Task: inverse folding
């Protein structure tokens, strides 16, 4: 097992990503990935950020804070099947709430996807971050539903692709080695040439939970 994977496996066991917050809310990300995301937001200056799987909402506040500094019309759309009341209250009462819209429901529900499409269509650039259910089928469906929103100059982040590098049986969840975001992404990329891996991000980070999961959109 590569050293990076060993380190991330041990850090995950110790719940390292749960130790950090962004503007008061748990962000549940490795710090290096947080830094990379803020760099991309500042570079791309998206008019819309769509994130599936919001947990406590720290990542939504991360996106919104950078969009607020950029100025302009940028909005963050957070989708989660279960937005718990304390998290909803913390997000909706935050001073950055005007940059955030919460959408409760499954990210692969056609009605939820249609709602997102109606809000995001016409906005550009768009960044999409997939970080909800990490099973192959779920991520494959998310890729099908949300990547058409991203035009040239936009960005796609597929979260927790590192799962495929862990030993089998590492997770008490529906996902595992061979059934995870990386396997879904690889299958997706076999049928499109619109996205290109951003190797500069991966090479710079050294430690990331999203190997192969940083992608620039290079074609409309």
Result:
């Amino acid at each position: 097992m590569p050293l990076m994977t060993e380190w991330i496996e041990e850090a995950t066991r110790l719940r390292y990503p749960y130790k950090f917050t962004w503007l008061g809310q748990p962000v549940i990300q490795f710090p290096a990935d947080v830094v990379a995301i803020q760099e991309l937001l500042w570079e791309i200056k998206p008019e819309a950020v769509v994130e599936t799987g919001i947990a406590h909402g720290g990542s939504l506040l991360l996106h919104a804070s950078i969009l607020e500094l950029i100025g302009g019309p940028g909005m963050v759309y957070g989708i989660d099947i279960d937005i718990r009341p304390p998290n909803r209250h913390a997000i909706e009462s935050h001073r950055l709430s005007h940059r955030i819209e919460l959408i409760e429901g499954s990210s692969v529900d056609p009605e939820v996807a249609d709602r997102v499409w109606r809000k995001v269509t016409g906005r550009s650039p768009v960044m999409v971050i997939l970080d909800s259910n990490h099973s192959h089928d779920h991520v494959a469906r998310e890729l099908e539903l949300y990547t058409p929103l991203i035009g040239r100059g936009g960005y796609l982040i597929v979260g927790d692709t590192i799962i495929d590098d862990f030993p089998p049986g590492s997770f008490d969840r529906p996902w595992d080695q061979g059934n995870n975001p990386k396997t879904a992404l690889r299958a997706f990329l076999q049928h499109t040439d619109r996205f290109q891996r951003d190797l500069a991000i991966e090479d710079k980070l050294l430690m990331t939970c999203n190997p192969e999961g940083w992608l620039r959109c290079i074609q409309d």
User: Anything to note?
Assistant: The first helix runs from residue 3 to 13.
